[in-house]
Amino acid sequence: MRNNIFLKTKTYYSLGVVNLFLVSFYRFQLKSKWFKYTLPVSQPIVGSFFSGGLIPNTDIKYPKDASLLLEGKVRYFSHQLFDVGSPPNWY
């Protein structure tokens, strides 16, 4: 019994006062159903989650970049072209 109390005291000391307070406060919130009242479960989102255009329509040259890939040139960082060969010689 005495050894058990010593181990608990040693563990509490190593965890720290702030951590013990935060854990006990969290357990109090769970038992008092604090989260049920502050974060109520609502109805799920119906329909399209992403609506509207978040990215403006820009003129992106995907077919041009695809033809460059077939020629063995890869675009890095959106503006630099590097010749890696076709098929790429990675080694």
In short:
This protein has 91 residues and is mainly alpha-helical. The chain has helices spanning 2-15, 17-31, 34-38, 62-70, and strands spanning 73-76, 80-83. A two-stranded antiparallel sheet has the order 1-2.
Give an account of the 3D structure.
With 91 residues, the protein is mostly helical. The protein has a domain at 1-39. Helix content is 47%, strand content 9%. The protein has four helices and two strands, in the order H-H-H-H-E-E. The protein has helices at 2-15, 17-31, 34-38, 62-70, and strands spanning 73-76, 80-83. Strands 1-2 form a two-stranded antiparallel sheet. The longest helix is centred in the first third of the chain and has 15 residues, at 17-31. The protein is elongated, with a radius of gyration of 30 Å. The mean pLDDT is 80.
CA radius of gyration is 30 Å
Average pLDDT taken over every residue: 80
Straight-line distance between termini: 66 Å
> What is the helix/strand order?
HHHHEE
The biggest beta sheet is recorded as: 2 strands, antiparallel
Please tally the β strands and state the result.
2
Uncertain stretches: none
Percent helix, as a range, is 40-55%
Strand neighbour order, sheet with most strands: 1-2
**How big a fraction of the residues is strand?**
5-15%
Shape: elongated
Number of helices: 4
Estimated structural class: mainly alpha
